[in-house]
């Protein structure tokens, strides 16, 4: 079975909102990525992928799977041989074990893309609302703090990312790889709005150096994340709403083709013949 191009249908649903990816589906994604990592050790974790997919939802131009899949898991080169949207995607044998694994990964990513788009298109005044956008951010420090002392000691020398740091790095990875789609528009107010929104996401790519106050992994666990970090993540979520709406209001960029000016009739012909243009190619 060949994988199809997951498309973005951003029509918000009025039905009760349920997560697109169950815990079992998230475990399945982790297992797929672990298997891909056995062939490419640079394969990111799902948290990074979720940030990356969120950025695609917020990008000005809808980025097709032929571009974003190899950039996320492959060598970055656009997949060729797909003529139109919805056409089966050739098996990426350097990434996936088989067509079934590829199809399942793209199916689950497609569900998440649709969910994020739907959530960001629903007006809300609270991030606690059931249908509010919730990024797949991890508190690895909080999770590790809950491990037995011996296991924590084994990880003492490892650089453990802060809450939501990996998610934000995934988001900015997409922004950096499609710079033309993130070029600020001429409208100064909109450009400032975009810059301010991106700055809020960039802020959580940095390490959380504040005083630990809460544990995002377990309310009863040892403090692992600063209150400032929690507030920064909230601001980054609101920034995703803003970016989605700003770029939707502008629509895809329109390429302009500039026609080169023709030489004057008495000018030398650009072909190099030595004749005047009117006596040569302008005749």
TrEMBL record:
Domain of life, per lineage: Bacteria
InterPro entries per record: SEC_C_motif, YgfB-like, YgfB-like_sf
Region Disordered, residue ranges: 1-20, 259-283
Name under which the protein is recorded: UPF0149 family protein
């Amino acid at each position: 079975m060949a994988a199809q191009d997951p498309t973005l249908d951003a029509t918000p649903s009025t039905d009760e909102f349920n997560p697109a990816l169950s815990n079992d589906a998230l475990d399945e994604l982790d297992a797929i990525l672990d298997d891909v990592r056995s062939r490419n050790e640079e394969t990111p974790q799902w948290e990074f992928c979720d940030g990356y997919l969120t950025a695609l939802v917020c990008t000005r131009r809808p980025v097709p799977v032929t571009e974003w899949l190899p950039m996320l898991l492959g060598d970055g080169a656009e997949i060729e041989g797909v003529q139109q949207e919805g056409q089966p995607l050739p098996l990426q044998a350097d990434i996936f074990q088989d067509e079934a694994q590829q199809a399942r990964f793209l199916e689950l990513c497609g569900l998440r893309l649709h969910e994020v788009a739907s959530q960001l298109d629903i007006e809300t005044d609270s991030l606690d609302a059931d249908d509010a956008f919730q990024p797949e951010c991890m508190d690895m420090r909080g999770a590790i703090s809950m491990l037995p002392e011996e296991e924590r000691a084994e990880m003492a020398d490892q650089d453990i990312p802060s809450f939501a740091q990996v998610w934000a790095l995934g988001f900015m990875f997409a922004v950096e790889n499609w710079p033309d789609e993130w070029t600020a528009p001429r409208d100064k107010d909109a450009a400032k709005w975009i810059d301010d929104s991106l700055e809020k996401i960039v802020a959580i790519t940095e390490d959380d150096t504040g005083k630990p106050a809460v544990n995002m992994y377990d309310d009863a666990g040892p403090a692992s994340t600063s209150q400032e970090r929690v507030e920064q993540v909230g601001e980054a979520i609101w920034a995703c709403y803003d970016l989605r709406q700003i770029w939707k209001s502008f629509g895809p960029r329109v390429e302009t083709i500039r026609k080169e000016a023709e030489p004057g009739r008495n000018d030398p012909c650009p072909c190099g013949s030595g004749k005047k243009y009117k006596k040569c190619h302008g005749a």
